[in-house]
Amino acid sequence: MSTSTPVRTGLPVNVKKLREKVAIGVLDWENLLAIVNDPEVVEKSTSSKVDLGLEEYAALRAEVQRLIGNKSSAKAKNVGPYADYIAAGLRGEFGDAWSTPPLTLWCPRTLILNEQGDTMLPLRDQIIAVDAETQLTAMHRIRKNRRIYGLEDTDFAEVLVAFEIYWGIGTEDARQIFHDRNLKGVAVDKSLALSMDQRDLATVITRTLVDNTIVSTDDGDAPLARFVNSSKRQLSVNATEWVTLSAVRSMVVTTMLGKSGIGATSGTVDLDNLPDGLSEQEVTQEVVGALSAIVRTLTDAFETRSAITAPAVLAGLGAAAHRTMPWAEDLLPPHLDFLGLLSEIHWEREAKYWDGVAAKVSAAKGLSFAGGAKDSGYRVCEALLNPQSEAGRKIRGRS
Predict the structure, then answer these.
(1) How does strand 11-19 pair with strand 22-28?
(2) Is 254 helix (H, G, I), strand (E, B) or coil?
(3) Alpha carbon distance 382, 358 (integer Å)
(4) Strand ranges (DSSP E) for the chain?
(5) From CA 51, how far away is CA 49, in angstroms rounded?
(6) Dihedral, CA atoms, 89, 91, 96, 99, nearest 10 degrees?
(7) pLDDT in tens, 129-185
(8) Residue 38 DSSP symbol
(9) Terminal alpha carbon distance of the chain
């Protein structure tokens, strides 16, 4: 691949120049997938007995991209779900609420732009994706299997995708762009991201709970939503809110699923995770009803940001509350009042109640609830449900 010769012929496009060697533009799928190779095909070509003429291209791509690898690699596993997501968006299932980032392309050769932004993109083996390559791979997969994805009647010449393209820069610079795109940004906590997902049933129920629960405080009645922070994973010491939305969602997930939900608080939850025959309305009504009663009954414990607001405690509380759900396999015995079980608990953040259950005493003799739901949720659940157990007696001040 010659990188010194400017591109003078090829696919005509119009782009908006951002800097001396980078521009943004829009292309239809047919043309874009014709000029940018399928990464899966490129990788297979290096081990194929059939010469596909992609060795030079594959070698250059390997300089600026991580390999997709075999089916067990994280990148390979992500292609399928990404393709499902894009295809669902194209089928109109998400309305306007779906998004893919612009593809980041690199052409080692120099592009020639006129004042209007008209230029030519090389037609074959000259352009490499240095970012959003998983998306590119998913696009190729959809295009090749349009019937499987329910897009057999789609004209991909009318489906557009945004891109940015860098040109005339060396391998070192392209590799640096790959690095910066993947490491400079701060990864979003998965639980926080899920709290924004309006197609996730657990998130929908969580927001319904928060928006429809009224709590009584010293300042009068107020919506619970006023005291739930939706944008942070952890609250600061001086925060006016009581709890984060992601922590409340953990309680909702475990209420829906029981103990098995403790390990699933950072994953999506929908009706497929529940027994057959349940409707979204029924699940929402039962979960919101139970948890709203708990929050209203224990408002003082929430308002003082006691142990009940720790994510592990909320997860364990939800797992215990699951025993009151009609679909639970092991329903709480009729003679046990769940709110009564909670009324005896000391929610104060003190070691004599919570050390070894949901918290640990640190080297500085302070009490830390830093462990997540998976660390302590099971112990909390057992302590809440079994007053005579060692942990059950401890959190009730009987130890």
Answers:
(1) antiparallel
(2) helix
(3) 11
(4) 11-19, 22-28, 103-107, 118-121, 128-131, 160-167, 214-217, 220-223, 228-229, 243-244, 360-361, 367-368
(5) 6
(6) 20
(7) 999 999 999 999 999 999 999 999 999 999 999 999 999 999 999 999 988 888 776
(8) -
(9) 75
